[in-house]
Amino acid sequence: MEVRIERLDHYGRGITHINNKICFVENTLENEICKIKILNEKNKFIEAKTETIKEKSSDRIEEECPYSNICGGCFLNHMTYKKENEFKENKIKNIIEKYTSISPSKVTKIKYKERDYYRNKITLHGNSVLGYKKEKTNEIVKIDKCLIANKTINKIIDLIKDEKEIEEIVIKTSNDENNIMISITGKTNKLNELLEIANVLRINNEYKTKEKTIINQIGNKKYYEGLDSFFQINKDLTKELYDEIVNYIKDKKYKNVLDLYCGTGTIGIYLSDYVEKIIGVDNNKSNIEDANNNKKLNNCNNIEFICNKVENVINIFKDIELIVVDPPRKGLDDKTRNYLKTINPKSIIYVSCDPITLARDLNILNETYEVKTITPFNMFPRSYHCESVAVLERK
Ligand SMILES: C[S@@+](CC[C@H](N)C(=O)[O-])C[C@H]1O[C@@H](n2cnc3c(N)ncnc32)[C@H](O)[C@@H]1O
Questions:
Q1: What is the tally of structural domains in the chain?
Q2: 253 domain-assigned
Q3: Domain span at residue 16?
Q4: Do 364 and 384 fall within a single domain?
Q5: What is the distance between the alpha carbons of residues 68 and 254, in angstroms, rounded to a whole number?
Q6: Which CATH number covers residue 20?
Q7: In Å, how far are 78, 85, 100, 385 from 94, measured between CA atoms?
Q8: Residue 329 C-alpha to ligand 1 middle, in angstroms?
Q9: Do 250 and 351 fall within a single domain?
Q10: Ligand 1 pocket test: which of 223, 235, 279, 282 has the largest number of ligand atoms within 8 Å of its C-beta?
Q11: Tens digits of per-residue pLDDT, 338-392?
Q12: Which one of 42, 255, 321, 333 has the fewest beta carbons within 10 angstroms of its own beta carbon?
């Protein structure tokens, strides 16, 4: 069957219509004419794959990655980087338009850096072969290299790629790639080689190195990072994202600031030179341990950390002028969202990795706060994910 692709959905899949049903066609671009094969027909939608593309879009490029659309990671390898950034900016605008009463004109130009070799962390799974899990399955796709993992991680992939008894391996590096952390579940026959290169090596929960953390740098701040602590995975763009917040707050001389879902305290410490006092909250013990060490490492005396769920402590704060939130994908819970309004800070900065939950939360906060800007950050090139930073001011 021959179809014309009308537009892309939020996952970057082409959309067309067959017999009045919406049909999703992977790996296609707007206006392409394709011969497709139906894979799955449900009551409300159809899923199809392309057999041949009869008329190609000028935004189409050759896919460099041998695991494209197979390994479950990158689904936008077939479009130019320019097109990818346009797609993501429009995706945020469309979501804001569809799910909120906020004008999509508040979405500013997308920010981006390198398309390749940007990740400072990967996890590979093993079951006689070592690789990534195919999307929504437990099937492992063996990989020999990864275009989005940084070059140091790729050297480690090359070293361990034929191992048969590793069940899971997490490889992390500092943003400058000078420090390496590796955690293995299962067995490796490359122990000596890994000990030579890794600053931190943990096998089946037992540390084989004296060190348990590495140091990562963003701008003029240094951060300890452990194998289990959260750290932004884009080694190039994180500084830009944090600078976006600094640029907004630097002349405002805020007295009391909250950094909610603070991870290892990275944002709070980054902002600490510009405000009087900050409190960071995260529910992960290992993150808060790192955050307290980071505080010392940066001689930062105006920040305190609380290890608890945000929703358990949000009601104790008073006289707060700025709140930064950086929640996980599910966004803010009802209690936290309501308390943000009760605390009534002058400004809220919302860092989000899921535009749908961001839109839901902004639409509610919009009753008392004006959304000034929503800036998309392409923190995850080649994937359909996109980070955003929204700036809200009390009406
Ligand atoms: C997206 S990360 C933010 C990290 C940090 N702001 C950064 O830039 O590195 C989300 C964080 O929320 C924490 N978290 C998840 N649910 C939470 C909750 N209910 N209360 C407090 N922290 C939570 C996680 O431990 C994680 O560190």
A1: 3
A2: yes
A3: 2-60
A4: yes
A5: 47
A6: 2.40.50.140
A7: 22, 14, 10, 14
A8: 10
A9: yes
A10: 282
A11: 999 889 999 999 999 999 999 999 999 999 999 999 999 999 999 999 999 999 9
A12: 42
